[in-house]
Amino acid sequence: MAPPGKRHRAPSTKIQVIKGRLSKFQAKYLTVDFAKRLVFDPSLLWISAILLLVAELFVNVLVIHRVPYTEIDWIAYMQEVEGVVNGTWDYSKLKGDTGPLVYPAGFVYIFTILYYITNYGKNIRLAQYIFCGFYLITLALVFRIYSKSRKIPPYMLIFICCTSYRVHSIYVLRLFNDPVAMMFLYFAINLFMEDYWTLGSIFYSLAVSIKMNILLFAPALLLAYIASQGIYGTVKHLSICAGIQIILGAPFLLTNPVAYMVGSFNLGRVFLFEWTVNWRFLSEEVFVHPGFHISLLVLHLGCLAIFASPWFRYMKSFAKLQPTGVGILSQLFLLPLFTANLIGVAFSRSLHYQFYVWYFHSLPYLLWSTPYSIWLRLCILGFIEMSWNTFPSTNVSSAMLHVCHLLIIYGIFSKRLPPKDLNVDISKNK
Asked: Does residue 32 lie in a domain region?
């Protein structure tokens, strides 16, 4: 018998416990406020990222099966690496249907692996599935960068995934080498953000060894090395990068060093006017003129010099605060990297359609680093997409692309000082 004055409390049943938990779940998550946060709150971006990755798997499989594959460079890639498979290490003798081999040694090794996996390059469907894997890995790496940095709202991931036919085409319908290089680059950026500088340098150098457009990130990365690693550390990491290039290129360097260096890192390469996306409004005579190339190089270097000082301030702040482990600090590291790449793209001697992946996944981040309204940011993104989807390019599409690039660069320059509210954001996320 229970003591006087005390009531006997019946034990809670499992059903009551479950109902209680469901009520708490409903009160916390099944609300209009939480639905809005899923769309607009950068801290919840990871939820949208997971859902979109699953959706992209099905979308890419559908594209592979429903949209015809278009042969552009895959056969040429296979022909080029087949020469190495047959024992030819002289770069000057490695050729395909589209011309001589013009990529560094890492490209040869990666595509030699693909050559064997795909039955000497004949199993195109298997190659498409492999590139689908590259696409999903790249997306996961990019989403992780965005989730850590908390810079863009989750709804922008839809624009990254669902609005670009061109990007899906580059990955699973064209099988270019550019996506492979960018995948290694995003691996490197994730490692740098987590303070794994040696591993990051290794992956960065591997990316360069696949295609040298990755060098467009180098000016900002050099400042990051100096700010975070000091002079000794900078020399160490530059040595790592250079050493990997030497190791990978050794068989070719020992056979014909001049042919390898000229062929794989040819900075004076002249592109075909018929494929240009960004300079259609020029005459072909101007397009191929050395004076035009030198002018672009001067403008490129001048723009980098203008941004160098604010970038270095960003990198010093990042190096000082990185030990706190707060993900939002990565904004200080990412903006100089992505901006340096954009500047390189904007002043490129020519852009071909597959080059879109060089900066496509960084565009939302760059646009959200400008002072423009959301509608103007989305309009700029739409006009860029329109320019890259205009085939063949026109005077208007090329000019529009340049206007969009310059608007982004100007917007970033106008906000070149670190945001005043960053310290507030850091304290909230500790």
From this structure: no
Around 250, how many Cα atoms within 13 Å sit in the side-chain half-sphere?
6
Number of domains composing the chain: 1
User: Two tokens at 391?
Assistant: 């085939």
Query: pLDDT digits over 349-381, tens only?
Result: 999 999 999 999 999 999 999 999 999 999 999
Determine, yes or no, domain membership for 317.
yes
Q: φ, ψ for residue 96 (rounded to 5)?
A: -135, -175
Summarize the confidence of residues 32-57 as an average pLDDT.
88
Instruction: Please determine, for residue 268, whether its predicted confidence score (pLDDT) is greater than 70.
Output: no
Q: Is the peptide bond before 392 cis (omega within 30 degrees of 0)?
A: yes
The answer to whether 38 and 48 have CB atoms below 8 angstroms apart is yes
Average pLDDT over the chain reads 90
Integer distance in angstroms from the first to the last C-alpha of the chain? 53
Selection from 45, 135, 63 nearest residue 364 by Cα = 45
Rounded (5°) CA angle 140-45-341: 55
Q: Is 400 helix (H, G, I), strand (E, B) or coil?
A: helix
Query: So what's the pLDDT on residue 201?
Result: 97
Range of the domain at 135: 40-415
Length of the chain: 430
pLDDT at position 247 is 97
d(CA 178, CA 171): 9
* Average pLDDT value for residue range 252-268: 88
- Residue 95's DSSP bridge partners are 100
- Say if 220 falls within a structural domain: yes
Q: pLDDT category, 39, cuts 50, 70, 90?
A: confident
Report the distance separating Cα 333 and Cα 82, nearest Å: 40
Q: Which amino acid is at 421?
A: D
Decide if 402 is inside a domain: yes
Beta carbons within 8 Å of 29's beta carbon, 6+ residues apart: none
